Predict the structure of Glyoxalase.
Amino acid sequence: MLNNIMYVTVYVTDQDRALEFYTERLGLEKRLDFPGPDGRFLTVGVPDSPVQIILWSHEPAAGQPGGPGAPGPLILESGDLRKDFEIMRRRGVVFEESEPVDYPFGVRIEAVDPDGNRISLRQPRKP
């Protein structure tokens, strides 16, 4: 039986720039970084989470999935999204909205990485 999500992939045009964004701006940690037969295998992850995000190189013309309103390839959870939003904004993260928005399920805002990938940041509503 399957028992874990091991990796998810985000396609980037510059792995060094993406690494800086995901670690220095979003606050994730670098996990793996080594050359492989198909290219550099570079991962980041949320501290204390087993899931790793592969920052995989691709051509700029490959395009990005989804448009406005579509979820990003990553949905990251926060215990205090408004506080994290302010920290990330000071670090230079670009957001689609001017501040987090309340929804019936909790709080949400969409960030954008240097390649235009949308990162959904969520805080679930407390019961």
Q: What stands out?
A: The mean pLDDT is 90. The chain has one domain: 7-58+68-124. The two ends are 32 Å apart (CA to CA). The longest strand covers residues 29-36.
